[in-house]
Hints:
This protein is of the alpha/beta class. It is 31% helix and 28% strand. A seven-stranded mixed sheet has the order 12-11-13-14-10-15-18, with helices on both faces. Strand 7 and strand 8 (179-190) form a beta hairpin. The longest helix is centred in the first third of the chain and has 12 residues, at 45-56. The protein is globular, with a radius of gyration of 26 Å.
Amino acid sequence: MKDISTLSPDIKHLLTVDQAWTYKIVPEKYNSDGLYLLIDENKSSLDIKSELEIILGKKIKFNSISTDEIEKHLNINYPRANQNINEVSFIQLSIKDGNFLENLVREAQNLRSSDIHIEVYDDKCRIRFRVDGQLIERHKINKTEYPTLINKIKIEAKCDISEKRLPQDGRIRFTSNNSRIDIRVSILPTLYGEKVVLRLLGNDATHIDILKLGFNNEELERYQLAIQKPHGIILISGPTGSGKTTTLYATLKLLNKSKSNILTIEDPIEYTLDGVNQVQLKDEIGLTYTEALRTFLRQDPDVIMLGEIRDADTAQMAIRAALTGHMVLSTIHTNSAWGTISRLIDMGVAPYLLANTINLSVAQRLVRILCPQCKKSENYNCIELPKQFQSVAITKQFKPVGCNHCYFTGYKGRKAVYEVINITKELTESIKEQKSSISDYCKINKINTLAENVLNLFKNGETSLEEIYPYLINEN
């Protein structure tokens, strides 16, 4: 029997999600002979054959498979977030449908997607979703309809529909079922047309809880101690999409008291938090991080949050704000918590100023967690790990399998992993001396690196070797 676990979107679109689940059928192939469907062996194909031929307008042929197999194929190709009929989890996309964009966004939300990629190539157009950090193809679009789709998005995002040669950015706001979602729109001209990426921004920060982010007890204690200080800088480092902003908002939620004046400058504003004064960055009119910081210092702030330290001017202004008695929170792109120090010094920040202002440096990553319903235990072979980690006491490992609960990906959700370094008097001297490594200090003070923390997840059976391996080989 042909393996259809990776059906192409054009085959999937022969059925809607309701049709597939109602009749317990999955398309196998379609040619001049008709539409071949796999059907649950416990359902009578004779009873529904004529009905489906009328509904689908095609000649139908059936192949029976077991109930377990049909369930597997349905969950892979027509995944449903839940059984709520008001939810849309897999739609048959129609550009002519006035609600197509809203339906697409709701589908992405149900699948816990962070981004929607709409792309055009020489011979096809497709839509992909990023789920748990991985891109999966969901839809194909007729190339003749692609310009109509792009123009509708441009109109919703208040972009110029006549401009097709330059990149554009915009925002779309949807309100549905008493919930609001903001979407950041990025349009990029490519060889065959314009590519669009829609970033889905969770609008409400009230659900974010610092206790549930992934800190272990020691890290959480060090972190909370640092944010209780009246002034200084707290920096979160990591690549794009590693959860840095979520950590900052969990911090703001703790600091957000009636007696505090909190100001943020962000690009974009990903969450809203009642009681926090949030400013959207607008480079095109001169509202940069540096200019916003200058104004913030005249607004009598207690806490300032910068979306990102991108350049030397912003770094210098952040140092100045901390020196004048303010708490400054920000993010920066570095590979490790101590690497943040070197990066700021390279930006021109004087080591003695940095030593006197930085309270805490944190590095973080997001690691996919194995689905607890289907993960499989296997014997562990230490040679599979890099040499420096082969002595770690691990007796077994878990691998992804796939089931109905995780759409047969083997993973369900992600967890933040941290490297938390409090800047003590000893480290203050290390900063002044511009030491490139503090590995001995970390070992003596039992400060886990990112590699050690992801290895603990593997050791505890929460994730797989393939998921943590990239973090282990990057360990210096």
